[in-house]
Structures are given as C-alpha cells and as structure tokens.
Prior knowledge:
single chain; 2 helices; mainly alpha; elongated
Amino acid sequence: MDAEQLKNMRERYEAQIRHAEEMIAYIDEYRFVIRDIDDTRPDQELIDEQKQLHLRLISNYSTYLAALEKRYGA
C-alpha cells in the first residue's frame, strides 16, 4: 500500500468515526428514532439500539485505524 492509499483509508475511517459520533449526538439531542411501521417497541429501546450500532461502528473503525498504524507505521 502506498502513502496515498494509506492516507485515503485513514481519512475514510476517521470520517466514518466522526459520522457515527455525530449520529449519536443527533439521536441524543432530538431523540431521533427510525422504526418499521409495525414496530411497537418503546422509543428509548430503539434509541439505545441505534446508539449501540453507532458505538460498534466507532469501535470497528478505531480497530481498523490501529491495525493500519501497526502494519504500516502510519
């Protein structure tokens, strides 16, 4: 992997992390819920589920970044 590809991957992973962090903040601020029309679960349960999804994304992309750093010393 050349330096340009490494830079692009790092930027993409960092952007994904920022996006997930922004979505968590948005969910918290506006109590934003996405649900199927037949989903009867309480809003808070859906909010918690969506926040956990974004926290997992942050964790995964952070792991990817750490692996890039370790492998390529970027």
